[in-house]
Design a protein that fits this description.
The chain is mainly β. Helix content is 12%, strand content 38%. Among the domains are: 85 residues, Carboxypeptidase-like, regulatory domain (Immunoglobulin-like); 92 residues, no CATH class; 125 residues, Methylamine Dehydrogenase, Chain H. The strands form 8 sheets. Strands 3, 4, 6, 7, 8, 11, 12, 37, 38 and 39 form a 10-stranded antiparallel beta sheet that branches. β26 and β27 form a beta hairpin. The longest helix has 15 residues. The chain starts with a strand and ends with a strand. 45% of the residues are buried.
Length: 561
């Protein structure tokens, strides 16, 4: 079913956008800059050190690397107050006093590396890994165990439950959210109230707050906050690794969970806020972040769960608004109009999309992660075509189709997150084939296509970057320099055929050159960024956008030639 949102709603949205943006309107041509030098305690210049420039008012961190004679420059800054801090050679400076950056002017701040840099946290995988990978210990015995195994595990593995530790109120809120999802499921649907009460008693007893937790809103996880500089290199950066700027923006809405990010033809980033029912627009010139509510659905926006977002060639934003709303939403950013396509009835699980891709013929493709299908929408006819994933059909549980990429011959390749398998759909015949990944416990994630039409993907579980020769289906694995990196998402600079991959566990972006088979890694300004979806701006291919769901941050890395 297709629905058009009336102009009256569009006017409301446009007015909201205007109000939100008004305080940030200014000309990027009047940008200022901050410059200076990094020195050691003896006054000698230090090259290859990080310099962080931060604005509390604009909620941003920018990071560059000092060059010859320790000089640094951070350009294109909107007017305001900024601090600077240097980090390098195992030392750091104190953050400077705030300095005014005026439009069209350069301010100067020198930094002196005189204090020890904080120690790295012990090597380990962050919280997001525990929630998303297997190898979970057996669930404790109890009446609620059967409910989890029968009703929760078809969509999540048991680790998703056992890795969480909350008080009763937080668990109750979580269960209420999951029951909304269940109402959009095929099959048994919602829990009964007595079942929900049994399950609440079970998880509260067995997965309550742990000692040393932060106590915030019942989260109760034993998690020490990392020092903001502890993750950065202690050796001077050289070569390509020293030629970049990183920008990071902290969302104002707490726990909005910016899960996915995409970029339009004008260089504007668009974000899906997973927990708020909003998409958002981020202008890199002004640091203006504008939130746009989706039209009302089956539930109010605070209970919707957005996931994938993808810009098409006409700067329309396609968004997956899963259960309980069960719909695909498209927002015309030029006209300010929404159109809504009700999702097909789920054969299993619920209608939630992980990745959206637009093929050359204008078809909209989506991996329906929990209901074991690939969807194709023809926007002209407003009709969906569905393709079942064979391994999930056989196992009677979703193979969790995850990332997706179109190959040079027009076929759609997709990762199967539950198995060491990659699938391929032939749109001409409807045939779905599966290919084994040459790595056990690989946990395939998100994909991109290179300039030659070959799909690439990240293997989250084994920290590998994979090239698939679309003509032969041969897979070649490459290892990023940092082990246990959590390779997650892939996007390609099509102009130079450079492959970018996000490293979720290490909080870095890595660039791979297939011609030389060499990697360059780029740190982000703050630790535990939870860097997930990435996308190269093909009109500005030196710039790669990223989103961090758990950190509530978005940003980009831009390489300087």
């Amino acid at each position: 079913m297709f629905r058009y949102v009336s102009p009256k709603v569009v006017v409301v949205v446009a007015a909201l956008v205007a109000v939100v943006c008004a305080h940030s309107v200014w000309s990027a041509d009047n940008a200022g800059s901050l410059q200076g030098a990094v020195k050691n305690s003896s006054g000698a210049p230090v090259s290859g050190a990080f310099v962080k420039v931060s604005s509390a008012e604009r909620r941003v961190h920018l990071m560059v690397v000092s060059q010859d004679q320790g000089r640094y420059t951070v350009s294109n800054l909107p007017p305001g107050k900024y601090t600077a801090q240097g980090i390098g050679n195992g030392l750091q400076s104190e953050p400077s006093a705030p300095v005014d950056v005026a439009a069209g002017r350069a301010a100067t701040v020198d930094v002196v590396l005189s204090a020890p840099q904080a120690m790295r946290k012990p090597k380990g995988k962050p919280r997001v890994d525990a929630a998303e990978t297997g190898n979970a210990p057996p669930l404790p015995e109890g009446e609620g165990k059967n409910i989890i195994e029968g009703r929760c595990i078809p969509c999540h593995n048991s680790q998703r439950v056992s890795s969480q530790h909350h008080d009763r109120a937080r668990w109750q809120a979580t269960l209420e959210q999951m029951r909304l999802y269940m109402r959009g499921l095929s099959g048994p649907g919602d829990l009964t109230d007595p079942q929900a009460e049994v399950l609440l008693d079970y998880v509260t007893k067995n997965f309550g707050p742990v000692a040393g937790g932060n106590g915030g809103e019942g989260a109760g996880r034993a998690k020490e906050k990392a020092d903001p500089n502890s993750h950065l290199s202690r050796t001077p950066l050289q070569g390509a690794a020293a030629k970049y700027v990183a920008v990071e923006y902290l969302l104002e809405t707490p726990q909005a969970e910016p899960h996915d990010i995409t970029v339009d033809s004008k260089g504007i980033a668009w974000i899906s806020e997973r927990t708020t029912g909003h998409i958002a627009r981020f202008d890199p010139d002004t640091f203006a972040y504008t939130r746009i509510p989706l039209p009302p659905g089956a539930v109010d926006s605070s209970k919707s769960r957005l996931n994938a977002i993808q810009a098409d060639s006409r700067d329309r934003l396609w968004v997956s608004d899963g259960a309980p709303n069960r719909r695909l939403v498209v927002y015309d950013s030029k006209a300010g109009e929404f159109n809504i396509f009700d999702a097909p009835k789920a054969s299993m699980g619920t209608s939630t999309g992980n990745t959206i891709r637009i093929s050359k013929d204008g078809m909209v493709w989506m991996t329906a992660i929990s209901n074991n299908q690939i969807w194709r929408l023809d926007p002209a006819t407003k009709k969906f075509t569905t393709y079942d994933v064979p391994s999930g059909v056989k196992a009677k549980v979703s193979a969790r189709p995850y990332g997706m990429a179109a190959s040079g011959d027009g076929k759609l390749w997709f990762a199967q997150n539950s198995y060491d398998l990659i699938g391929r759909v032939d749109p001409a015949t409807g045939k779905v084939e599966e290919f084994e990944v040459p790595a056990k416990g690989s946990d395939p994630r998100r994909m991109g296509t290179d300039a030659e039409g070959n799909p690439w993907l990240g293997l989250f579980g084994v920290c590998k970057l994979v090239k698939i020769d679309y003509r032969t289906a041969k897979m070649t694995l490459y290892s990023p320099p940092t082990p246990d990196c959590g390779a997650y998402s892939v996007s390609v600079d099509l102009k130079r055929n450079l492959i970018w991959v996000s490293e979720q566990w290490t909080g870095k972006l890595a660039r791979f050159d297939p011609r030389t088979e060499t990697f360059v890694e780029f740190d982000l300004p703050t630790p535990e960024a939870d860097v997930r979806r990435i996308e190269v701006d093909q009109n500005r291919p030196n710039r790669v956008w990223w989103s961090g769901s758990a950190s509530n941050n978005i940003g980009y890395v831009e390489v300087m030639d």
